[in-house]
Amino acid sequence: MMNSPYEYSITLPEKMENGRKYPVIIALHGIGFDEQFLMKAVSELQEDFIIIGVRGDLPYEKGYAYYYLKGYGNPERDQFDSSIEKLKEYIDYSIGKYPIDQTKVYLMGFSQGAILSMSLALILGEKVKGIIPMNGYIPEFIKFEYPLKPIDHLNVFLCQGENDPIFPLNVGQANYNYFRDKAESVKYTIYPTEHKITKNNQYDVVAWLRHELEKISSPESKSGKLVSKE
């Protein structure tokens, strides 16, 4: 059994059924936060999903980072590439250690975590079923330098702050434009906030994941490609 490349926190359903595999939410925090940051946002789903918060391995202010920045939109490339490799290892590690359905892996991320969740979905292909990127972007070098896999199976819920000074609306629109023709379904919602996650955003994330759970339980109800923008 491999060792985990990251520290992490995990919640397992209290009434776990022997032999059952569960969908998983892997939460990736923003720079300066910790692994608990996003786990709280989806805590009410802990009976239906395994929920994991992965802590970045680099200290940053009062929290952590997965990589450092030369400036916004300009990561330390060696650290970024290393974080991608370690997160790939972590996903394999968690699937091997816990009763996770490897066809139902969801990545949720804020800011730096959003960047990584989108990048990993493009790199890992069918290993990721859905992503919830909140206020982030897709690095150009991911699109043009990494070997990317088809994502026509992928369900995406893009979240964007209307007044985000770090990643403004044109960044969120670019994310939407990129995914809408490639993924199975794309939901894009803009919230009246800055570089933050609002209560309404949290509510919508939980609702979206519940809907994903319904589709998992009733695959015959799936109705083809869906693209929506709010």
SSE sequence, one letter per element: EEHEEEEEHEHEHEHEHE
Name the strands of the widest sheet in spatial order: 1-3-2-8-9-10-11-12
Note the overall shape. Answer: globular
Low-confidence segments: none
Number of domains: 1
How many whole angstroms does the radius of gyration measure?
A: 16 Å
Largest sheet: 8 strands, mixed
CATH homology superfamily name: Alpha/Beta hydrolase fold, catalytic domain
CATH architecture: 3-Layer(aba) Sandwich
Architecture overview:
The chain has 230 residues and is of the alpha/beta class. The chain has a single domain, classed as Rossmann fold, CATH 3.40.50.1820. It contains 6 helices and 12 strands. The strands form 3 sheets. An 8-stranded mixed beta sheet has the order 1-3-2-8-9-10-11-12, sandwiched between helices. Strand 8 (100-110), helix 3 (112-124) and strand 9 form a beta-alpha-beta unit. Helix 2 (77-97) crosses helix 3. The chain is globular. The N and C termini lie far apart (44 Å). The model has no long low-confidence stretch (mean pLDDT 94).
Features:
33% helix; 8-stranded mixed beta sheet; Rossmann fold; 230 residues; 6 helices; alpha/beta
How are the secondary structure elements laid out?
Elements: E1 8-11, E2 22-28, H1 36-39, E3 50-54, E4 58-60, E5 63-65, E6 69-71, E7 74-75, H2 77-97, E8 100-110, H3 112-124, E9 130-134, H4 140-145, E10 155-161, H5 169-180, E11 185-191, H6 199-217, E12 226-229
Parallel strand pairs: 2-3, 2-8, 8-9, 9-10, 10-11, 11-12
Antiparallel strand pairs: 1-3, 4-5, 6-7
Helix pairs in contact: 2-3
